[in-house]
Amino acid sequence: MDVWDGQFPEVTNRTVSFSCMHCAKPACVVVCPEQALSKRGEDGIVVIDQKKCVGCRSCAKVCPFQIPQYGRAGVMQKCNLCMGRLSDGKLPICVITCPGEALKYGTIEDLSEMSSGKSAEKLSSPTEPSFFLSGRMTGTIFLTLLSSNK
Ligand code: SF4
Ligand code: SF4
């Protein structure tokens, strides 16, 4: 996703890898007519039950970041924060494979602490994304923080 900042002619553009933000107020969950999407109470991860999904794509329309994707099987798919790995005590794949170590994982409290002093901001949206983006002021992304919250 392209992130634009500033006003002409002082404009900056960065390309940011966005996956599901596991929002505190997920519009996708609210709109789903089949209750196929839910936010887990224990860790705040927003998950899709593909057995319930009918492929209406309503979730994709309301997600501010266009995260849910229509898959070949006729159902939606999106990041589940590698919840299977997390339950085994491992980090999400994106975090361990990013060559620039730009992605971090933790609770909202962890990320808030990690981001302090790094010009990081919690991404703003009515859905309250669980995501901090750093480097906004300088136009350089040096740290992007992922989290689930409740
Ligand atoms: S980023 Fe989009 S798909 Fe993910 S929880 Fe928020 S509204 Fe739902
Ligand atoms: S596409 Fe599937 S998950 Fe999305 S709103 Fe429709 S039924 Fe729910």
Helices, strands, pairings?
Layout: E1 2-7, E2 10-15, H1 27-31, E3 37-39, E4 46-48, H2 58-62, E5 69-70, E6 76-77, H3 83-87, H4 93-97, E7 103-107, H5 108-115, E8 121-122, E9 131-133, E10 144-148
Parallel strand pairs: 7-10
Antiparallel strand pairs: 1-2, 3-4, 5-6, 8-9, 9-10
The site of one iron/sulfur cluster has 14 residues, from helix 1.
Structure description:
There is one protein chain. The protein has one domain (2-148): Alpha-Beta Plaits (2-Layer Sandwich), CATH 3.30.70.20. Helices cover 19% and strands 25% of the residues. It has 5 helices and 10 strands, in the order ββαββαββααβαβββ. It has a 4-stranded mixed β-sheet with strand order 7-10-9-8. Strand 5 and strand 6 (76-77) form a beta hairpin. The model is unreliable at 136-141 (pLDDT under 50). Bound molecules: iron/sulfur cluster (2 copies). One iron/sulfur cluster is lined by residues 20-23, 26-28, 46, 63, 65, 67-68, 78, 127.
